[in-house]
Design goal:
By secondary structure, this protein is α+β, with helices and mostly antiparallel strands. 35% of the residues lie in helices and 27% in strands. It folds into 4 domains: 114 residues, Beta-Lactamase; 192 residues, Beta-Lactamase (2-Layer Sandwich), CATH 3.30.450; 228 residues, PPM-type phosphatase domain (Phosphatase 2c, domain 1, 4-Layer Sandwich); 121 residues, 2-Layer Sandwich (Heat Shock Protein 90). The protein has a 6-stranded antiparallel β-sheet, sandwiched between helices.
Length: 709
Amino acid sequence: MPADHVVPGDRIPPDRQVAAAPPQHDPTSESMLTEWLLNISPVAVTVYDRQLRFIRQNAAMARLLGLSEHDRQGKRLVDVLDGPDATAWEQQMRQVLLTGEPALSAEIHGRTAAHPEQDRVFAVSASALKDHDGQVRGVCTVAADITEEYEARQRLALLNEASTQIGSTLDVIRTAQELADLAVPLIGDWVNIDLLDTLLKGEEPGPFAEGVALRRVANQSVVPGAPEALRQVGEVDFYPAHSPPVRCMATSRTILHRVTDPAVQDWLAKDPLRADSFRENGFKSIMGIPVCARGTLLGVAIFLRRSARLITDGDRLLAEDLVARAAVCLDNARRFSRERTAALGLQQSLLPRGIPQHPAVEAAYRYLPAGGRSGVGGDWFDVIPLSGARVALVVGDVVGHGLEAAATMGRLRTAVRTLADIDLPPDELLTHLDDLVFRIADEDGGPGTDTADLGATCAYAVYDPVSRTCTFVRAGHTPPFVVDAGGTAKQVNVPVGPPLGLGSLPFESAEVPLDDGSLIALYTDGLLDAHKRDLDEGLARLRTALARPCPSLEDLCDTVIDDMLPAGHSDDIALVIARTRPLDTEHVAAMEVPADPAAVADTRSWAADQLAAWGLDDHSFVTELAVSELVTNAIRYGQPPIQLRLLNVGSLICEVSDASSTAPHMRRARLSDEGGRGLLLVAQLTHRWGTRHSRQGKTIWCEQPILGG
């Protein structure tokens, strides 16, 4: 009979009988599991009752917290873990008691008896303890110290952040502060960034045998207000040769010390103020990292900690990486600052130191160098006295920034003054300047260089106070404005020529009659492009600003700048505003001269009478001699009509005009020559003389200062 059909009482052969017994309880297995859980398991476990009071913990938890079971009896988590996270975790444990559902892993921060001076990070989870009836009787928590893993994640995150946060600008101070802000509190409780003072001044770092002066460029602290600071940002701190920071720089290697180390104690013993600061703030360790970039030592970064835990190798490697990244940014910022300073110095040396007083105009100007990453640009301006009491106003712009743009600007400004000095008409002047820019581009870049890379523009205006007209011409530049005596601002309709250097199209001028006291405004495009506004919008806004009534030209310049640049600017800006001052008939005298040598005597008499009327009899001898020579030359070599004109404008100007384009040349006569000395005498007896051409002919002029004027 099969065994599964055996019923009680049936006889079973002895060879088919099986002894069966109920399962037996093995106390040895349970005790081994308990022993392993309480004393051997690396997993830290704690059991709490329904009031979240401590009941039991294993050895791993005791090591984790630094407290025995006896020390924890009847206590809650908040009694053994300092920090706000303990309270938040207890709230989750209460939810476990209420719902019976486990609380998955979470991270909590706090300080324990095992590490009373350092925050630790724990990964924790909790589950309900239930009886046979399913009733929740307590909570079991499991914890693991993940501080090292957490700090590793923080370091990685900090490095990622550093790639975007450090070096956001080309400013040395801000770049250093970005480094200090990132390093606190993960690496240090207090951070100094000190750079070599000599290097910031443009000098190379020298030997450190006598110590070194470092300028504090940034600091940061875990305590608001940085109370640890012995030196404020911008102040110089002197470090002796034996100090750890100097040894760090001298060896270009990181130094790590406890404050109790002999090297630090020897330093502090000779610096009582620093020793008091270390003592008051409880600093226990110091790390110095040299700030080096491209083989150049820039300074040192000092990290201080209050914690008794020494700065680890992980901290050191992280700090070295941060400092290395920041060093490159600092060096870039330093180089940019040095180049900007040099370019600004060159630019300022090439620009006018001020506007000279001139009888034809009263002028004011504003020049604002570019800021930010763009650096100094190539804008320039000038007010140039011309013959015949005329005056030239000019503004120009060289595209680009830095030393090259500033140098090119200087070359163009010098060229404009030279061309203006030979009295070229405005359109011819720009034609010559256009050719010069083409040659500059060819010289700097070689044949075939694209002159558009130079990108120079210019606006030029000549005001004649006698005719009361102003002649404008521009090469790819923004249009000038004129404000009439009634306060109405108008854009001058000047044909726009091509930018300088293209040489493809001629320049056309526009002559505009001006009322007494009119304003002429020339400017560069930085005034319009401050906010990348539409050109028409910018011109309309400038028109409104120029029309504002102001007590003086200086106030008007300020008003225009404030209206056009409410939030700063990123490009160079040049602005020149001139108020016209026409000459009245009392200061101008003219006569038509017949083409007859006999008329020379009449011109001398007329000139003497005019000087007497002006009270300038002392200048009669030189003036009569100049009039005689210039009129004689015009009659002999020129063509009618001939005109003699005298101007009394703070200096005495004598002009003789005729319809011929042939100009006389001064030469040195030989002893046997009977003539050829006239112009030489004029040049010797007057302050200056020259020739200017016009479409109607030429004018020979000479000028002499008025004695006592």
